[in-house]
Write a structure and sequence with these properties.
single chain; six-stranded antiparallel sheet; alpha+beta; Dna Ligase, domain 1; binds adenosine monophosphate; five-stranded parallel sheet; Rossmann fold; binds glycine
Length: 421
């Protein structure tokens, strides 16, 4: 088979790495890829949201299966366009991608389907939103409706912070049309976990649980990032909690989307908070998480291509997937300054010292500069190790992080140490 992966992050490197292990795969392409992906796949210089460019490429290379990484490609409708041309592609339609593409859509859907989530209100007028604040309880959360590169959520301690959020989103329009509407919702308390499910429209198969570390600094301090590390499984998700998450959130979502004529195919990623009132959905993403994926896929023992084909063909209920019982820890190495300003182009040393049996290094912001690997983004590398428990996996991963070096490199030192309470 010829397989195409769309995207360029650590998530896509992990996907390519796992896909490459399948005996079914003859040629593997990645658009646009990165310096690490280029070592295992043929990278092609087409942007992830250049839907027409991707379609022409897939047709010309006779691609048998396409896997979509980023939400931007999905929200741009890449799946609909590929399907129209008879190409097999793993991911949700543009309409189903609204679960991530519009927070208003997601909240209204959850309310309709009685899925536990924070109580909310929608506003399309900043003046009305500010008036509402006068009688609201704090802290509360203000969210831009549309996709805002992970920055559209403001947890506001007081009215001043909430007014500023409304001003930035709806008046200054810092996220453009993504801020035409906002959701103001109750601030939930509790540890956060992620549950991803592969779906075929009707059936689903949950992947092992994971936890992300979103803040830039140790002890969950500083601004939010795309994710500074992750681990799997989450010890907070007992069998009982997992059953609740599936019964109250995942299953009603897949059933609801199907019943509403908008079946969900692809990865449903539920961002969850374990509150004293049970698990609640903070948000949905419609794709693999980054860096969650880097901590989940190394535990997958089955052929991932078989899983994708079963999902595309609507026969997920017919297959079984095997997981390694080990724990997995992923540590993200970033450019100093991220998530704010940082510089690119620093030479990355020490990767040859990382042995495959100890750790896999997935690349994100790297590129090949005339034979030298240099930094090329905020999140640069994910260093991933398996171990008999989280602690053993974390020790192994950190040992390997210490072999790697580039100017101004930065990483958190407490990944998988602080599990949440
Ligand atoms: P989202 O992009 O919706 O996942 O939000 C980003 C982060 O904001 C989440 O990972 C949470 O840490 C936080 N967050 C979002 N919604 C809420 C909420 N209702 N209560 C508390 N924290 C929230
Ligand atoms: N790690 C969170 C995300 O992928 O959005």
């Amino acid at each position: 088979m010829n397989v195409l992966v769309i995207g360029s992050g650590g998530r896509e490197h992990a996907l390519c790495w796992k896909i490459k292990q399948s005996p079914k795969v003859k040629r593997l392409y990645c658009a646009p890829g990165n310096g690490g992906i280029a070592r295992i796949a043929e990278c092609v210089g087409i942007a992830a949201d250049d839907v027409q460019g991707l379609l022409q490429f897939a047709l010309s290379k006779k691609i048998d299966l396409t896997i979509v990484g980023p939400e931007a490609s999905l929200v741009a409708g890449v799946v609909d366009i590929f399907v129209q041309k008879g190409l097999k592609i793993f991911g949700p339609s543009q309409a189903a991608s609204q679960l991530e593409g519009s927070k208003v859509f997601a909240k209204e859907f959850m309310q309709r389907r009685h899925i536990p989530t924070a109580v909310y209100k929608v506003f399309n007028d900043p003046a009305l939103a500010v008036t509402y604040l006068q009688q609201a309880k704090f802290p509360l959360v203000v969210k831009a409706d549309g996709i805002a590169a992970g920055k559209g959520v403001y947890v506001c301690a007081d009215i001043k912070a909430a007014k500023k959020a409304i001003e930035e989103i709806m008046v200054q329009k810092i996220f453009a049309v993504a801020g035409d509407r906002i959701v103001i919702e109750e601030c939930l308390q509790g540890p956060e976990v992620s549950l991803l499910a592969v779906c075929d429209g009707k059936h689903f198969l949950v992947l092992p649980t994971s936890q992300d570390h979103k803040r830039i600094f140790d002890d969950d301090l500083g601004p939010n990032t795309g994710g500074m590390g992750a681990f799997s499984p989450s010890p907070l998700v007992t069998v009982e909690v997992l059953d609740q998450i599936i019964a109250r959130i995942i299953e009603p979502t897949i059933r609801g989307m199907y019943q509403e004529g908008n079946p969900f195919k692809g990865v449903l990623f539920a961002g969850l908070m374990l509150t004293s009132d049970g698990p609640k959905a903070l948000e949905f993403n419609v794709r693999f998480g980054d860096p969650e994926t880097q901590s989940i896929l190394p535990r997958l023992q089955s052929d991932i291509v078989e899983l994708f084909l079963a999902a595309c063909d609507g026969r997920l209920h017919e297959i079984k997937v095997k997981w390694d019982e080990s724990s997995c820890v992923c540590i993200v190495i970033a450019s100093g300054g991220y998530p704010g300003k940082y510089q690119n182009g620093f030479v990355i040393n020490g990767l040859d010292g990382v042995k495959e049996e100890d750790a896999v290094v997935f690349h994100a912001g790297t590129k090949n500069d005339g034979g030298t690997l240099v930094t090329n983004g905020g999140r640069v590398l994910s260093v991933v190790s398996l171990g008999r428990n989280l602690e053993a996996a974390a020790v192994k991963a950190y040992n390997n992080v210490s072999k790697i070096e580039f100017d101004h490199m930065f990483f958190r030192r407490d990944i998988a140490v602080k599990i949440g309470k």
